[in-house]
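Researcher: Re-running this chain for the archive, since the previous output was lost when a drive failed. Same request as before.
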Amino acid sequence: MPNHLHALLFGEADFDISVFIQAWKKTSSYRIKRFLARELSRYAQLCPEDSPIWRARFYDFKVESDEKFREKLCYMHNNPVIAGLVESALDWKWSSARYYELGEPVGVNLTP
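Model: Regenerated structure tokens:
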């Protein structure tokens, strides 16, 4: 999605999602700002230097069943379709739908 993302994360029983999200936001913010400065410098100049990349908060939901996993995955895959960005979940460049439907790699390691 152009203005947000969805992810299904897996961790051990003591996995602290807040620590993970903090590190993810910090690392990705740095890389996104560096990319903008290098690749889209005219756009980057329009953005105030102190503009945040991420919102301060995040929403998490503990998935505890295969049924809930499938429900959340289906929601994620159909999100760009419902938003009118593509006609099929398979058409969304950053979707894992191609992996789950066609077995095609999508740039990150996924769990079958």
